[in-house]
Fold Rod shape-determining protein MreD.
Amino acid sequence: MSKRRSGGIMIVVGTLIVGFILSQMPLPSMLVWWRPEWVAMIVIYWVMALPHRFGIGMAWVSGLALDVLKGSLLGMNALSLTTIAFITLILHRRLRMYPLWQQAMMVLVLVGINQLIFHWIQSLTGSTGDTLVFLLPAVVSAILWPWVFVVLRGIRRTFHVN
């Protein structure tokens, strides 16, 4: 493996590690539902930017790592991130052409699907609520998407990740 290719993989893994850290930072109890889905946004970006290098397999591994890190039901994050990666992979050419505000709307839908999968699995285990508050992370993720996109694109261009 060439030095340039392995360096690119390290940048992608580094951004995922930052996403893992941000997803575990403690928040006050009243803000817990307002936490954006950092790892999901990073997966969406890398699948959209580098579909030939970051695909469904990497999303699955990232999801398993997030399951272990959060102590959640093993496979819950893996299933949701794989689903998001698959949809993003299908739409990646179209998503690249959208302006940032339209990409943010797609992130709202994709992270909403992520949250719906979580809610569905939690309802199967009997530990879910009756309100739609579980969709708030999708709204916050969509609001933050333009900044996440610009930061990750800057990292990709700075380190020449292709």
Notes: The helical segments are 3-24, 38-49, 56-70, 76-97, 100-125, 136-158.
